[in-house]
Write a structure and sequence with these properties.
Blueprint lengths: L3 E5 L9 H8 L4 E7 L18 E5 L5 E5 L3 H12 L6 E8 L11 H11 L4 E6 L9 H17 L5 E7 L10 E3 L4 E3 L3 E6 L5 E6 L4 E3 L5 H6 L3 E7 L5 H8 L15
Parallel strand pairs: 1-2, 1-5, 2-4, 5-6, 6-7, 8-13
Antiparallel strand pairs: 3-4, 7-13, 9-12, 10-11
Helix pairs in contact: 1-4, 2-3
The structure holds manganese (II) ion.
């Protein structure tokens, strides 16, 4: 049976990663590419509710046929799964993102959110990122790892309540020192609020800053990437803090209904 693989991303249809990724996955099934027509990095799990979506055919610079939408990464998955593709995907691969998605990053990441949407649709889903931002990134090591992971998923019938979040060091394949299954690490953002004036004298604001500093605790995705290894982190969508349930239950919950404003 020919598998159907959906490739999407949050960096947009212009991303240089799409060609190598589609090439690497082509041996495993029919690859369909549906990506946003612009960069949605940081869009997290946003969906379009109050306007229609357009989905137009295009051709990647690397030659593959693809579709681009004016929606978010999550919209791309919803389109594909809800019928834009004739076959429901057997696998969703989101990426390859330019820049790591480690630890707390995943709460901002459109790349990871697209895989979350796949998971919500009961489809095995991978988010994959490369730990570099610069130009001239070689995406082929990450692409070939995505294919290896896809082969594992197809052979083992992977179906669980988790997506797989993968980070690949921005190194030549022969300098990547292994693969580690990890948990999420911690990111310490150093963003600042910058206020400037526009040409008309009105203030505007830009939030940004230097690269994050990281505590590379053993066993985390952060530590793996720093050591030149590929991290594979299983991510579940249940955000419940199970540790707090019992403590919270002991708080004073003697609530007597809504507060009524005093009569005048
Ligand atoms: Mn991105």
């Amino acid at each position: 049976m020919k598998r159907t693989i959906l490739v999407t991303n949050d960096d947009g249809i212009e991303s240089d990663a799409l060609g190598p990724l589609a090439d690497a996955l082509a041996a495993l099934g029919d690859v369909h590419i549906i990506c946003p027509d612009r960069n949605w990095s940081g869009a997290s799990h946003s969906i379009t509710l109050f306007r229609p979506l357009r989905c137009r055919p295009t051709t990647l610079r690397s030659g593959q046929a693809a579709f681009m939408t004016d929606g978010s990464p999550t919209d791309c998955v919803r389109l594909a799964v809800l019928g834009f593709l004739k076959q429901k995907p057997d696998l969703i691969v989101s990426g390859i993102n330019r820049g790591a998605n480690l630890g707390d990053d995943i709460t901002y990441s459109g790349t990871v959110a697209a895989a979350m949407e796949g998971l919500l649709s009961n489809i095995p889903s991978i988010a994959i990122s490369v730990g570099a931002f610069g130009a001239n990134i070689d995406f082929r090591p990450a692409a070939s790892f995505a294919a290896l992971l896809a082969r594992n998923i197809f052979e083992r019938g992977f179906m669980s309540d988790a997506l797989l979040n993968v980070n690949v060091p921005a190194l030549p394949a022969d300098r990547i020192t292994g693969v580690v299954v990890t948990r999420l690490g911690k990111r310490n953002y150093r963003d600042q609020l910058v206020e400037r004036l526009d040409p008309y004298g009105n203030p505007y604001y830009w939030v940004g800053g230097p690269a994050v500093s990281e505590e590379a605790e053993a066993g985390t995705d952060v530590a793996a990437l720093r050591a030149g290894r590929i991290s594979v982190t299983p991510i579940a969508l249940d955000l419940t803090s199970h540790a707090l349930i019992e403590d919270l239950a002991s708080w004073d919950w003697a609530w007597s209904g809504p507060v009524t404003s005093s009569a005048r």
